[in-house]
Design a protein that fits this description.
Among the domains are: 88 residues, Conserved hypothetical protein from pyrococcus furiosus pfu- 392566-001, ParB domain (Alpha-Beta Complex), CATH 3.90.1530; 41 residues; 65 residues, no CATH class. By secondary structure, the protein is an alpha/beta fold. The chain is 55% helix and 8% strand. The protein is flat and about 70 Å long.
Amino acid sequence: MSDKVRTAFELDGVTLPLSAIHPIRQVKPLDHAWGKYRAVLASLKEVGLIEPLIVFPQRGARDAYLLLDGHMRLKALHELGRTEAFCLVASDDDAFTYNDKVNRLSLIQEHAMIVRAIEHGVTPEQISKALSVDPSKVRSSLNLLDGIDAEAVELLKEKPITATALKLFRKAKPVRQVDMAQLMVSGNNYTWAYAEALILGTPAEQLVGGSKPKSPHGISDEEVTRMEKEMEVLERDYRLHQDKFGENSLHLNAAQRYVKRLLENAKIKRFMANRYPELLEEIQELAALEAL
């Protein structure tokens, strides 16, 4: 096996005329990401191009490149009247790799960047221009994590949790906030609705002020109490199974490897095929699974 790692793009970037870069899709006003495009446009206008475009030489055409990543940036550059851009030349024309592997900033990471920028002298007005948002929104985002436990923030800092869901965390005490964050991470659910359900299922003594939040319209106090008990049982069972998950996975993987070794024995495989063909087929499917 070779020790060399193949790079995904050429190490030296190039500055290309925009006329030589051909997008593989169009960014239109009806796209769901049009609001994001306006933010990209404002950022380019204020601070310039930070992230280079990713291109690949177009086959059969001289000095022409396909755009793999950066369609919003390219459109914004055209709109601003720019004529060239700094690019990285990819080794493969695999647009999926670049779009699938990009890690978008989470709400908490964006908050940390805004706070750091303001600490270094950038004004909320400058940030609002770069992000194309109202200055009041930038100022209000500075209080995003007020009243939220640091351990819960650490668990959620890279997750796509919403501001409204984070706001609900303030209703719970720090220990419960950590529990809620762990449940969200384990269930991969960061919605406001799930956060509200966790708050409704939280005992009063674990809430700030010791009082239950107002029940949603149409839900009686008795139903909320039953939901609280069911949530407590669900959380206990979930953690019990979560604790056993690693051990069970280890046992399953060991069993799978053993079955694979048995199937490599021609006599055993022939016996199973003659006596239990349906069972053999199921065992082969299980043995072929990459993960159990």
